Amino acid sequence: INAEYGAEIPSGSMPRTVDVILRHDVVEKAKAGDKCIFSGCLIAIPDMSHYRMVGGTTQSVSKGSSNTNVKNDDGIKGLGGLGTKDISYKLCFLACTAQSSDTSPSYLSLSEDQQLNTEEDVAAQFTPEEREEIEYIRTRSNLYQQMAKCIAPAVYGHEEVKRGILLMLFGGVHKSTIEGIQLRGDINVCVVGDPSTSKSQFLKWVVSFLPRAVYTSGKASSAAGLTATVVKDSESGEFNIEAGALMLADNGICCIDEFDKMDPKDQVAIHEAMEQQTISIAKAGVKANLHARTAVLAAANPIGGRYDKQKTLRANLNITPAIMSRFDLFFVVLDDCDSITDSNIARHIVRVHQHRDAALAPTFSSSQLQRYIKFARSIKPIIIPESAELLVKYYRQIRQADVGGGIGPRSKTAYRITVRQLESLIRLSEALARLHLDDIVLILILILKLDSTSICRRSSTITKKIYNTR
User: Fold this and answer.
1) What is the pTM assigned to this prediction?
2) What is the largest CA-CA distance in the chain?
């Protein structure tokens, strides 16, 4: 079933769908969630769903019946009187070819296929001018800060949030063990804050920036809508799998707004998708293990609407500890009253409404950023022994601090530091190496700094990353 693109739906109209018939090798060229262009013809086929319905509108009367409602002089009215049903037809599209709607080199895909996304293959897709442009961007000074300013330029401030989203776009390296266990490389980010702090604007920008990104609301989404469900086909009577938001965002990013307002039973359904990146279904005789290789960008409101600084992050959120441990980064955005900050924000908003796009002057355009990220994701950086020792040392420090309360009072600890936090540090280090187009994870200096107003990373601490380039 091909659904109408959301941006092309007329005002006040519902999205329309049409059945597309694919045959032979064309079937594998279109997957759930892809935006494709089909070439073929429009045909009319009989609607066989009515023939599978039990019973009908026909009525048989035996001879000598005393039914006064049936008159013998009326004759036969249509085919229904003969015990048959009228044939109805429906329109379908018979596709001969199927191709992606965007085949340009700047088409950004977050796929981690080792055979298709090598550095040589991705570089061959760009023109010599584009390759020189990528090399020029890499040599820029303060590249991390300059690229962070290009994330949602219409939003003023929130530099830490933009840096986290930038690292999420680059992502870590997907790995697999000898036993076949998949280790995720996608970075999950959660933004928690007061109302009117541009949380939804970050989600909308990511959806517009990435071609394979899905936006959904936690309040209006069910467990089946987020993962997948099994439905019965009205024509064949067979059970089929319908993809949910996480499955449609495979090799992309799933943006979930109002994450804290999800029902607890719906939150349990995404446990497997956020860590193992798979969706397992065993219903109605259908047993399947589907891929959900997607990063999750969530936005949540604190309990009561306002973030209470006197409470910990865990006490301010209506999220289970199991889901909180699956997020790599937590950002807390507060709406504090400050005359200088309020004046700057007001000037920025007025300037955007007055001059629109002319008021936004990012260092890199969206196409330049997409090409750079596409090439950077083809790099598979490795961890050198020096960096491995630093990561182990830092993890041991924060682990002991969480147990003994070395970092602030014991009550300030949000929840325990687990191995997932160590994997988060590895993914962030690999994303930072990709950002600088380095094939190894160089020395990463980690400095602890308590700051509850900017970013809450795990146990109410933030990590300031200083990257020493070669």
Assistant:
1) 0.76
2) 101
